[in-house]
Amino acid sequence: MQIADQTRRRSARRRRLGAAAASVGLAALALAACGSSDDGGSTQGAAATQAATTAPAAQPAVSKKGIVDFQTPTAGSGKGLKLGFIALGDQVPFSKLVTDSMKKNAQEAGATLVVCDSRLDGQQALDCAKNFKTQGVQAYLNFQVDQKLAAAICKAGPSGPVIAVDIVQKPCETSFMGAANEYAGFLGGQAMGKFAKEKWNCDYDAYVSLESTASPDASAQRMGGYRKGFQSVCPGALKHEKVLDADRTDAARTKMTDTLTALPGQHKIVVVALNDDGALGAVAAAKTAGRSNDIYLSAQGADPSAWCQIKSNPNWVADVGYFPERYGEIGIPYLIKAAKGEKIPNELLVPHQLITKDNIDQVYSPKDC
Predict the structure, then answer these.
(1) Model confidence over 164-223: pLDDT tens digits?
(2) 20 to 30 Å CA-CA from 88: which of 96, 109, 141, 216?
């Protein structure tokens, strides 16, 4: 991918020059706050304010440390093991793809996989962990949504290794598996910045960030990466920045409706989203308001729910592929290793790819768009 290749070349040059910035890891953004506003996000969070007022003059370093390759588990490698997976919520298309991938790869490895759907509810995830302990699960993957309940879930679950999926699950987290959040955000932000530069010479009207207070670490890293990527092309303070707690379609539809009302007569509104769910809600809000041509989007995930938008909506500028249908090709092989007492990396991050209308047919071949 051209953008990704450019990023790699720049990173290589920085390493050869010994730039200290190249050592910055994904954890650096964990200190940032994920600002939100219940009244539609007209106020900025602390992280947003800091990012906006300290825009870098040149493209910043974004670490790719921890990114691993997908791998097919060895047949029979999981024989005799009872593993678990706490799903995020299979009503979410992305989550359903992850669940199906975990099941498929556990079966190929010959392991028994106990799946429990938390249905986007932390208390349900707590019950899942208790059930895993009762059933004698030896190691499990945890994709539950409420980071604040992670410690209680850890305590309730079995004592074996735990791989967190996309959302931090400390203190029992053996490894974090999922998005390379800052890098993925940077790819999407840089693509949006290039669009804004080419179309408006960076003279846009507002910057709206759809984030998540339930998953503050992932949100701060990913959306902080967006700011870095966008400002690497359009430097300076973000214009009329609004941070919305809107990572699900319904919430994004409601809050984006309020935001559009607060931005009358604005026709160049940049919308960046933590995931495809939020971006789809923003599209729905703009359509209802008769302002579909006023918002320009960059999202994360590139799951099937967004394929036709990526392919056919000229205002859906970019998306970043997470390949949830292949998550089991990372989670299951490494969970098996951990269950057998082998040391695994602290981070198991997805090899992301920028997805646009120009390459989606080669990557996914969407139908009926």
Answers:
(1) 999 999 999 999 999 999 999 999 999 999 999 999 999 999 999 999 998 899 999 999
(2) 109
Answer yes or no: do 171 and 315 share one domain. no
Number of domains in the chain: 2
Contact status, residue 297 vs residue 310, Cβ threshold 8 Å:
no
213 and 190, same domain (yes or no) = yes
Segment 111-138, tens digit of pLDDT: 999 999 999 999 999 999 999 999 999 9
329 with 241, same domain?
A: no
d(CA 334, CA 330): 6
Cis peptide, bond prior to residue 171, ω within 30 of zero? yes
**Same-domain pairing of 35 and 144:** no
Strand order across the beta sheet in which 295-301 lies? 242-245, 206-211, 269-273, 295-301, 316-321, 353-355
Task: Centre a 10 Å sphere on the Cβ of residue 25 and count the other Cβ atoms it contains.
Answer: 14
Q: What is the DSSP letter of 115?
A: E
**All residues at 6 or more sequence positions from 186 whose CB lies less than 8 Å from its CB, including other chains:** 7, 62, 225, 226, 228, 229, 232
